[in-house]
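DM from R.C. (forwarded with permission)

"hey, sorry to bug you on a friday — could you get me a structure for this? deadline for the figure draft is monday and I only need the backbone to look sensible"
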Amino acid sequence: MAGRRSGRAELRGSRLLSEAPHLRNAIAREATKLGFDAFGIVAPDAIPDALPRLQEFLDDGAHGDMEWLAANPQRRADPRTLWADVRSIIMLGVNYGSSDDPLQILSHRDRGAISTYARGDDYHELIKSRLKALARWMVAHAGGDVKVFVDTAAVMEKPLSEAAGLGWQGKHTNLVSREFGSWLFLGSIFTTLELPRDTRDESRCGSCRACLDACPTDAFPQPYRLDARRCISYLTIENKGPIPREFRKAIGNRIYGCDDCLAVCPWNKFAQEGREMKLKAREELRAPSLADLARLDDPAFRALFSKSPVKRIGRDRFVRNVLIAIGNSGDPSLAPEAERLVGDHSALVRGAAAWALSQLLPKDAFAEVRRSRLTSEADPVVRAEFAPAT
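My reply, with the result:
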């Protein structure tokens, strides 16, 4: 979004700008009215260490198949290459913490665990509408040009938020706030206005390593370093192919994302609850039945996840995840769902269904399915999934 006021409005903006602290406070108040929980302002050149850290991450190949991260890292690490006219960056956060324990569902193996942030409407749209409203208010009251970003552009939101005082990047690489723990959606407004800067927050993780120890797939080779290739969020969302065998059992019943490293953060106990505009989870996504989810065809998938971030990965990848959870359920009553899906149109789904059956059926029963399916299965990846259970 971009906009400019001219004439009288520009003069008004100039007068406000001469009292920049008052303008800063006015913007912060308006942000609170719009439902933002965290606010800070930072200079565009405030993250000089971002590029070498990003480059090290990319050089290690830790980004996996996320090639968009590797595209022009210089542009991603310096906001001025995204917009040369930017003079100040306003970082904003919305608390999405749940009053429920997001890890409780992991013990209910016939149910699917969807990451807390994805249990409601797509946060991109919700946050962007609030960002645009605040940006319009700024233009009307102070002039200048503005652009808004939320997670979809080459903006390093976490380092910028740390520099703006919203919190600090914890050992799990996510932002941690003294008020909201690890539960903040982030967005930004770039502006040509010169605004007072907030003070960088300092890490308060100390010797704690709860987030590192909680990771089911050991995705943190060391504190403050993530190997996305081992991360369940990456494996169930970004990964387009079969989930590597070495991680399948550790995934458990997590069918979209993973909250473990976030949920165990001790700072979560300070998260404020009951805010009027707090994001709401859909009841049908809190603990959905794996059997019901396995029956989703494409229209039903689109209907269930309308306006949800889950919709972006598509039905086939999602059902792949559901089948991994079914294979981990230990519940033979779910085997018919997997057996039906070994005949699915998608090779990705057929392969996951074969693996699920290898985990649930007795050896002789699985051998019978294998003999039957291999007579017509041409895909080599799917055929390999029919290897004896491991």
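R.C.: lifesaver. The CA atoms of residues 122 and 308 lie 5 Å apart.
me: no worries. Confidence is low (pLDDT under 50) at residues 1-18.
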